[in-house]
Specification:
The chain has helices at 2-5, 24-42, 46-53, 59-85, 89-112, 118-146, 152-181, 185-201, 220-224, 226-233, 237-265, 270-278, 281-298, 300-310, 324-355, 362-391, 393-408, 415-418. The protein is an all-alpha fold and 436 residues long.
């Protein structure tokens, strides 16, 4: 342990403090996040289900609702980033939670009175997505003020563990609730989760520090693109950004194709497909638990590069999946190993991005990242459909699997020495002194 403690710091900053307790207000923020995340996990898929069962939407309409929600939320969030950057973050998170609660609870109310429409569901999906973008960006910015740098991997590990636990449990619980109590039940649970989350944010006791001050003469266009400007100028954040776009896009390309492969080509029953969706979440749960321990043992930079590379190796196994129990085992192993590596990578990456983003750019960088992902991923999904039509489902999965290792080449392989120190806090919206 003493030898590990003397190891040089990596690009994600100091080693996590494995002995000290995280600040009490982090646990309040964590509790609020858990409530919202559990509600969202239980309610995942509830809006498409309502569209199909309650308003008779076609397959195309269901697809357009999901894609349109992301595009609409991105368009609205684009000018919101500069506005939210210079506001206190707790009221922003509280407002996002209450707004999401109101939007979601409106669906079962409208259904109860027989006035639910497809347009209503599209607006609700857009509002829900927008609130998620806003809440997460504000949460990351506020988390930076609550948690010391050396403990941010541990804090990220807690949040990541909550995500994977909720994801693993949410689907089965949601399915049971819908079966017993009806289609809109999970929307009620989801809305209550957001409400409890918003109320939980108000329990944080540490006085919130004043937000950064806006430049009085900054052009609106410059403020809107400030998040991307910051990312692309940073010596290593821009590499992680493109890594995330290519990796995330390739994964979402595979997701619907995996459903076609398992259900149509290989003939697995729906319960086995559901098992392939839920059981690998245990890998993500284990990975997030291991992340701070691996960082303490090997260093943040080694874990960032190692887990970021290993997570690209496993989807290629899906091409080998065949019929019967062995084929199902191949899918489960590939997905579990993928999510284990992602569970390790995500909190280390989150700490890196937080440490290397100036305080007065946290929200704009977060919204720029989210907007980019929500625009890039639908394009990859469409590309997957084109590839599957042209060369077949299994071959299309293989193409995406080959693209994943390319994303690993974009990781900051040369950044260990150059980025050993975090980006200093700047004022007035400028980033003058990034430590190299």
């Amino acid at each position: 342990m003493r030898t590990a403690a003397r190891r040089p710091e990596g690009p994600a900053g100091p080693r996590p403090d494995t002995a000290g307790r995280l600040p009490p207000d982090f646990y309040r923020l964590w509790s609020a996040f858990t409530a919202g995340q559990l509600g969202s996990a239980i309610g995942a898929g509830a809006l498409p289900l309502a569209a199909i069962l309650l308003v008779g939407a076609s397959d195309l309409q269901v697809t357009l609702m999901a894609a349109g929600a992301g595009v609409a939320a991105a368009a609205i969030a684009l000018p919101l980033g500069p506005f939210l950057e210079f506001r206190r973050k707790r009221p922003v998170m509280t407002g996002a939670g209450i707004t999401a609660c109101a939007a979601l609870i409106s669906v079962p109310i409208a259904a109860r009175f027989g006035v639910l429409t497809y347009a209503h569901l599209c607006v609700t999906a857009s509002v829900q997505t927008l609130c998620a973008v806003v809440f997460n960006a504000a949460r990351d910015a506020h988390l930076k003020t609550l948690v010391p740098q050396g403990q941010r991997v541990r804090a990220g590990s807690r949040l990541e563990t909550t995500f994977w636990t909720s994801t693993t449990l949410g689907g089965p619980v949601g399915g049971l609730l819908v079966t017993v109590f009806g289609t809109t039940t999970t929307l009620i649970v989801d809305s209550l989760g957001h409400l409890v989350s918003a109320l939980g944010i108000r329990r944080i006791r540490t006085p919130e520090s004043p937000p950064a001050q806006r430049d009085g003469n900054r052009p609106t266009a410059a403020g809107i693109r400030a998040g991307w400007t910051y990312l692309f100028a940073h010596p290593t954040l821009h590499r992680l950004f493109w890594n995330a776009m290519l990796f995330g896009g390739s994964l979402v390309l595979i997701s619907p194709l995996l459903a076609l492969l398992m259900l149509r080509e290989l003939g697995f029953p729906p319960w086995q497909y559901g098992l392939a969706l839920g059981m690998p979440g245990l890998g993500g749960l284990l990975g997030s638990w291991c992340a701070p321990r691996l960082v303490a043992r090997f260093g943040a930079h080694t874990v960032l590069l190692g887990s970021g590379t290993l997570r690209t190796c496993w989807p290629g196994l899906l091409v080998l999946a065949g019929l019967g129990p062995l084929g199902l085992a191949v899918v489960l192993v590939a997905e579990t190993l993928l999510l284990f590596c992602a569970g390790v990578f995500n909190p280390v990456f989150a700490a890196y991005r937080t440490n290397h983003t100036a305080d007065d750019h946290m929200v704009r960088v977060g919204t720029a990242w989210s907007i980019s992902a929500r625009c890039v991923q639908p394009a990859f999904i469409a590309l997957g459909g084109v590839l599957a039509t042209a060369i077949g489902v299994r071959a299309a999965i293989g193409v995406a699997a080959l693209a994943l290792p390319v994303s690993a080449a974009l990781l900051p392989w040369g950044g260990a020495r150059r980025d050993a120190e975090p980006t200093p806090v700047t004022t007035g919206g400028r980033r003058d002194n990034i430590a190299l």
